Amino acid sequence: MKIITSPLDKRTIASLKAGDMVALSGLVYTARDQAHKRLVDLIHASLPLPVALEGQTIYYAGPAPARPGAVAGSIGPTTSARMDPYAPILLEHGVKAMIGKGARSSEVIESIKQARAVYLVATGGAAAYLSQFVASARVAAFEDLGPEAIFALDLQGLPLVVAVDSQGGSALWPDFS
After folding, report:
1. 168 vs 4, 52, 113, 117, 162, CA distance in Å?
2. Of 27, 117, 141, 144, which is most buried with the most CB atoms under 10 A?
3. % pLDDT > 70, the chain
4. Which domain holds residue 106?
5. What is the DSSP code string of 48-68?
6. Is residue 176 part of a domain?
7. How far, in Å, CA of 17 to CA of 2, rounded?
8. Residue 141's CATH number
9. 1 within 8 A of 162, measured Cβ to Cβ
10. How far apart are the C-alpha atoms of 166 and 19, rounded to whole Å?
């Protein structure tokens, strides 16, 4: 297992190959459908973004409320294909890694290659287990969206698999869309 830290540098991204298992630590932003739409709307309107995207990792998740004494509630990945309409523009604006589950469109895979980025997958159905890898969580933007707000997470060793590497190599099943 490779130990990596977000934000990811170019050398780390280039070293990752499809199928590699990684343990990710560091700053990661969560964002689901509505947060993605708002970010892209701000980009199209040439307005400032509430979080810096350059070099960042976006986790397609929304944490459930934390139990007493816990840092975060369940925090599993959502289906990445729902973010495909937004991924290319966010990659153009600096995102270097995305975490979710499931296949990506051929357009997104091409955008990952062009941006020299990476797509990582987390185990679906293991949201309660994955919450133990969150050292801290705070709302970073769009608080009105509740669990779909953008959260800044400090991760400590989140287990992931490289699904699409920066060269377009894929550990995913074929895209039949």
Report:
1. 19, 25, 5, 9, 11
2. 117
3. 97
4. 2-164
5. PPSS--TT-EEE---PPPPPT
6. no
7. 11
8. 3.20.130.10
9. no
10. 12
Whether residue 137 is contained in a domain is answered as: yes
The widest CA-to-CA distance across the chain, in whole angstroms, is 44
Q: Is 76 a residue whose pLDDT tops 70?
A: yes
Q: 21: which 2 tokens?
A: 């298992």
How many angstroms separate the CA atoms of 141 and 112, rounded?
25
Please write down the HEC assignment for all residues of 114-139: HHCCEEEECCCCCHHHHHHHEEEEEE
Q: Read off the tokens for 157.
A: 């060793």
The model carries a pTM of 0.94
Structure tokens at 80: 């990445």
Q: Is residue 170 part of a domain?
A: no
The pLDDT of residue 169 is above 70: yes
Q: How many domains is the chain partitioned into structurally? A: 1
Whether the CB-CB separation of 102 and 79 falls below 8 Å is answered with yes
Residues with a catalytic annotation lie at: 36
